[in-house]
Amino acid sequence: MTPIIRIADFSFSIGETQILNHVSLDLLKGEFVSIIGPNGAGKSTLLNCLMRIYKGGTGVLEIDGNDIETFSQRKLARRISFIPQQDLSGFPVTVDEYVLMSRYPHMSPFSTVSDSDHAAVNRALEITGCTRFAHRNIATLSGGERRTVSIAAALAQESRIMLLDEPTTFLDPKHERDIFALIRNINRDLGYTILMVTHDINHAALSSDRICIIKNGECAYFGEPKAMMNNEILEPLFDTSFDFIAHPDNGFPVILPEGGRD
Hints:
Low-confidence stretches: none
Number of strands: 12
Largest sheet: 6 strands, mixed
Shape: globular
Strand content: 25-35%
Order of helices and strands: EEEHEEHEHHHEHEHEEHHEE
């Protein structure tokens, strides 16, 4: 089966600084892959290269067997949506107006908004639970609500591959849980292919089909989540040891938080 995303021997530098070094990984259609690793490892850079926000590099970046350079930006946006680390509080628009903007790959500069555009927006708002505040200004929403709006916009874009860069950063536990649950549902119920950068090792391990660990710009691990959840693999990659316990629901090994008391 041809991977829907193929990254092979890809390297990227900014000036004299090597950011990514011969990274190789692939995603199959409908797969959920998480990228984890220490700060500054190059995780977000890889997503930006896939979206051509960062241009250049050497090696292979392919979508459906086609080099990403063969796509126009509009056609690429029909294949991939991207949710960056971005706070939407500065957008002076309502939620439904913002989500409608994501329909740009399907519209021409002189076209009017079609029934299918409105239908895609309404469907995305409903799936994400944003319908109840669709007419509110984005600046009035909480951080978790704004992050959900970003996901709604990606859904309305109707590209079947979704890239997410640390989607739960700075969120409280409830909104963090809700966002991870929404992403899992988009993958499992709607069949979207997900590539997500996260620092949450437990959530990545419990949600993903495979996990890539990037350290110092290199893919140091790419495989099954359960096989990764031990100190033999994680300690040298994160330069710290972890304590593990079996999850009470499924027995899956998860990392215990560090104890703060004697």
